[in-house]
Amino acid sequence: MATLARYTARTATAVALACAFAAQAAPNLVSNGSLTAETVNNGVPASWMALLGTPDVMDAFNNVGLPNTQRFGAAPASASPDGGTWVGLGVNSEQKYTERFGQTLTGLAVGQTYQVSWFEGNFGYNYGSVSYLGSNAIEVLLNGVSLAKGKTLGLDSNWSSESFSFIATSSSVQLAFQLASMEKSYLSIDGIAVTTAAPVPEPATYALMGLGLIGLSLVARRRAR
Ligand SMILES: [Ca+2]
């Protein structure tokens, strides 16, 4: 009996911990949010569409997707925290040219709050007389309507992150990104996620979980006697 009680308590503890972890890892509704692809000038990763202009797939060794080209205005120290490749978006004010890419999300629950987040940086593009070195921000759009604009990033910003929430009004929505202003610039985006706004457990919740675990071990001890 003692062995059985201990085993039961341990199993319950394991289940409680597994549930706690599962609650924190909300699934990402974005397909290929890591923007993984071969580097390419004028192209977007699988699962994504170019909606305006010609976004690029790049990494630290292939700026604007051009092979072995490192024409950064200020080269990033590393890939984004997401790793691997990312997407570059430009704006050319002189040519009234902007770039936008996106994908349609499905399976949203109407009325549910979601969090859209990404990594971003401004490393520019600089080659001879062709330079994209201005400041800009990344703007997120839902069904073509602006939801929010991230921080304005000057050249050599390093990587940072953004997170905004929205409430779903239908089960599908087109998620898209572009630069917020027409200032001539070239910014990077990576690690795009849309998840249910996972409430961060409050101290009281942890306290309750702790009490539960203590209770389980007490039960196990009593049964063991
Ligand atoms: Ca990536």
Low-confidence stretches: none
Would you identify the CATH architecture of the largest domain? Sandwich
- N-to-C order of helices and strands: HEEEEEEEEEEEEEH
The N- and C-terminal alpha carbons lie at a distance of 10 Å
CATH superfamily of the largest domain: Galactose-binding domain-like
* Helicity, as a percent range: 10-25%
Q: What radius of gyration results from the CA coordinates?
A: 23 Å
| Average pLDDT number | 87
Q: What is the domain total for the residues?
A: 2
| β-sheet strand percentage | 25-35%
Plain-language structure description:
This protein is an alpha+beta fold. It has 2 domains: 2-23 and 202-224; 27-196, Sandwich (Jelly Rolls). Helices cover 20% and strands 33% of the residues. Strands 2, 3, 4, 6, 11 and 13 form a 6-stranded antiparallel beta sheet that branches. A hairpin with a 2-residue loop joins strand 7 and strand 8. The termini are close together. The model has no long low-confidence stretch (mean pLDDT 87). The structure holds calcium ion (CA). Calcium ion is lined by residues 34-36, 82-86, 190.
